[in-house]
Structures are given as C-alpha cells and as structure tokens.
C-alpha cells in the first residue's frame, strides 16, 4: 500500500502497467483521466483499474489531493515521473 499526494496544478501522466490498482481519496479532489472519459474523484471516493487499463490523474483544484493506493502484484517504484 502506498500513500500518494498530487499537488494543485500537477498531473500524474496517463500510463498503463501490468498491475491491477485500487485506491481511495482521503482529501482534495482529482480528475481521473481514462482512455475515453474523465471522472471526478472527491474525498471518500474509491477507484479501480484493471491490468493494462489506461489511466492518469490531474489536480485541477487549489488543495493537495491525498489518498492511498494498492497495486497487485506490488511494485516498489512507478515507471513514470510527475511533472
């Protein structure tokens, strides 16, 4: 399990990976970027991505977005960087 934070104006670049992924937004707001849509995520929302499902996130708000995430199988480092 990992604790994540995306600051205002920052983006988690869209990507794919072999891991399945679930998570939960603790506070702040995000926009999940999917292959054909965007989904708002607010505190208390959860998300799930299948293996190889295209996804990313943007914090378009004015507060940091914070949450937890779980990858299966686990991995220690992401394959991308944040801008």
Automatic annotation (TrEMBL):
Q: Which SUPFAM superfamilies match?
A: RmlC-like cupins (SSF51182)
Please give the InterPro entries that the UniProt record associates with this protein: Cupin_2 (IPR013096), RmlC-like_jellyroll (IPR014710), RmlC_Cupin_sf (IPR011051)
Q: Where is this region: Disordered?
A: 58-83
Q: Which Pfam families match?
A: Cupin_2
Ranges for the Cupin type-2 domain? Answer: 3-66
What's the protein name? Answer: Cupin
């Amino acid at each position: 399990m990992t604790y994540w934070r995306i600051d205002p104006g920052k983006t988690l670049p869209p990507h794919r990976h072999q891991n399945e992924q679930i998570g939960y937004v603790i506070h702040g707001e995000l926009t999940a970027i999917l292959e054909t849509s965007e989904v708002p995520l607010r505190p208390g929302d959860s998300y799930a991505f299948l293996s190889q499902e295209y996804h990313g996130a943007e914090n378009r708000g004015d507060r940091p977005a914070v949450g937890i995430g779980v990858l299966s199988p686990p991995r220690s480092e992401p394959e991308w960087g944040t801008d």
